Amino acid sequence: MKPSYDIIVVGGGPAGTMTAKYAAENGADVCVLEKTRDIGYPVRCGEAVGHDGITQFVEMQKNWIAEKINSCTLVSPEGTKLDVPFANETGYILNRRIFDYDLSRLASKAGAQIFTKVKVQGLLFENDKIIGVKVNHLGEDKEIKGKIIVGADGVDSRVGRWAGLKTTVKIRDMESCMQYSVSNIDVKRNNMTMFVGKNYAPGGYLWIFPKGDNFANIGLGISGKYSKHKSAKKYLDEFMSREFPDASIHTSMCGGCPIAYPIKKPVADNIMIVGDAAHHINPVTGGGITPAMKSGMLAGIVGAEAIKYNDQSEKFLEKYVKAIDKDFTKRHHTLYKIKEAISQLSDEDINGIARNIDSIPTEKRTLRKVFMSSMLKKPSLIIDVMRIFTGL
Amino acid sequence: MINIIENKCDFCGTCVGVCPANCIDVDEASILINHKKCIDCDLCVYICPIEVLESINEA
Ligand SMILES: Cc1cc2nc3c(=O)[nH]c(=O)nc-3n(C[C@H](O)[C@H](O)[C@H](O)COP(=O)(O)OP(=O)(O)OC[C@H]3O[C@@H](n4cnc5c(N)ncnc54)[C@H](O)[C@@H]3O)c2cc1C
Questions:
Q1: Measured in angstroms, how far is the CA atom of residue A164 from the centroid of ligand 1?
Q2: Residue A22 belongs to what H/E stretch?
């Protein structure tokens, strides 16, 4: 590890490694500091992505794919199953452990240096100006200088807060999540199933994402509005003992998903915030891999430019804000409103809409027809949700 | 005061994300609460997916 870099990226998830890749490719001297021993592990993710989402950055690799997805099923609270085949979209359930690892290798190939077991513990200031980070590397305290610090430190981000940026997630905008990776279950291949309703996952949904024969990620997220009364783990355990009492559990993990508005101010002098840390996550689906990669890419490009022009001021870094606004943050504002509208629907509302859609034959169930049908029943937004799901 | 049932913790950091006082520190296999900074809002208790945190009354 060198005593100084142009750009220091905190966190080795997709946001961090993509920041590093694009910053290095554009000429900056970059490092990635990851606190865990392993890039990509533990995996705190359902691992679902859309084909286009990933291939806009990198070519899809065979060993990243655990399962190809070409349809989805929505299960209403009373049990109506709505199958929606994907028209042009393809989805995948990834092997994120391999995927994240390979992204870090791409960053390294571009010239970035990756380090694990480096916990960033604070920012270094000189006359109120950020000039680097304080780290603990295998028990030893060190200081590393950097002209730009990028907070890619995920849901438990503190980098932004140390710089006075508001990255704290409101409890109502945090999904409390639990997931098991299980075998010995009967699971529909090439299909993702989502259960909605207060009994499964209030303010969120429960997912079954297959990964090969008889194997799947089964998890759920519940809104922080409800988790006070009953934890995510309790909801999932109830579902498992009801639906899959004989399952073997190979991985248990929990995590949080910030399904919030993107943070208002993700930059200040010498600092940028990307990915989950900046709440760059689709507020309806909780899909955050692609937005994390996108904000990382854009921050990497702007960061390298800021180095080249020797201007790391907030004003210069605003270019990153403009770029994400143009790309996805405006859309995320709309999606957030949709999320809020859905959360107003009662289980009865959803049952009614589902029954209505169910009366359209599956082969004719194009998203348009589904949409028109539910509009007649209730001008609700549930179908937008399905479109978003299928497009991920 | 917040008590941590540490051997139950998965170190996922969800509590850190909602903590308004920025007083929780989660590493790969450790969790620490700075009790001096903690404002006893209990949000970490409510959000924890696996009920690792509990609010206890100081005697
Ligand atoms: C249960 C669950 C299911 C999900 N399912 C999906 C899904 O199916 N599809 C999808 O697209 N998204 C899903 N998501 C969201 C997705 O996982 C995230 O949006 C994505 O990982 C964000 O990437 P990131 O790089 O911003 O953050 P992360 O991947 O969280 O990476 C942040 C990294 O920073 C490191 N770090 C943190 N603090 C420090 C520090 N102080 N010093 C050094 N390193 C630090 C962490 O160890 C971590 O490796 C899910 C999330 C959860 C919790």
A1: 22
A2: helix A14-25
